[in-house]
Amino acid sequence: MVKLLRAVIFDLDGVITDTAEYHYLAWKALAEDLGISFTREFNEELKGVSRMDSLEKILARGGKQQDFSNEEKEKLADQKNRHYLTLIKNITPSDILPGVKEFISDLKTRGIKLGLASASKNAFQVMELLGIKDQFDAIVDAREIKKGKPDPEIFLAAGKLLHVEPDECIGIEDASAGVESIKRAGMFAVAIGAKENFPEADLVFSSTAELSFENILEIYNKNLT
Q1: Is 129 annotated for ligand binding?
Q2: Does residue 202 have an active-site annotation?
Q3: Residue 11 appears among annotated catalytic residues
Q4: CB contact at 8 A, 24 and 43
């Protein structure tokens, strides 16, 4: 039986809007408060990773994993998030990445369901600020899952809310952990970024401005068995 493409599930940061700089600044401030060096290169390792897992990576970088109780770690993560929320207050629809509005409009016209699978606990707020939350049929964020990316749970949860099978979905990500999550969910994976960074992806666009449903559908159909 030939499967039809029925849904597209987006990551948020780096795919719909670029809040990576705000995350970087908030994590950097926290790390420096703890006496831990924090670079843009290290920040790349946190893309697509949950807040608590990101904190653990930062503490490990400074050799301070055992210096804090679980309760203290929760407070540190909350401190980072409060800083981040202050930074993103000025987000507007103009912060949607190039090509994304047009791509979403094309999908809606074709009757394709839209989902969001974000490791951020602030996904609903960011989508509201961008003015596109109501265009999405399902939104799943880190508050609703137990396992973060690269575990497939978040994409499977989004697919379930959309009432579609995994092989009827594509996922779009800009992080290797996210692409792994999509593939482990049994979905078609589209990556945004440098091709050499995503060997597991089914299709790679160098930027969101290149997103094309026709190109995606062509490769998706070729992958059908």
Answers
A1: no
A2: no
A3: yes
A4: yes
Q: How many CB atoms lie within 10 A of CB 109?
A: 9
The dihedral built from the CA positions of residue 70, 24, 57 and 202, taken in this order, carries a sign that is positive
pTM across the whole model: 0.83
To the question of whether residue 113 is assigned a binding role by annotation, the answer is: no
Which of 208, 161, 202, 213 is closest to 180 using CA atoms? 202
Instruction: Establish whether 143 is an annotated binding residue.
Output: no
The pLDDT averaged over each successive group of 10 residues in the chain (225 residues) is 83 91 93 96 86 94 95 96 91 96 97 94 92 97 87 96 96 94 97 96 97 94 77
Question: How does pLDDT run across 172-222, given as a tens digit for each residue?
Answer: 999 999 999 999 999 999 999 999 999 999 999 999 999 999 999 999 998
Annotated binding residue 121: yes
**What are the structural domains, with CATH classification, of the chain?**
7-18+93-223 (3.40.50.1000), 20-90 (1.10.150.240)
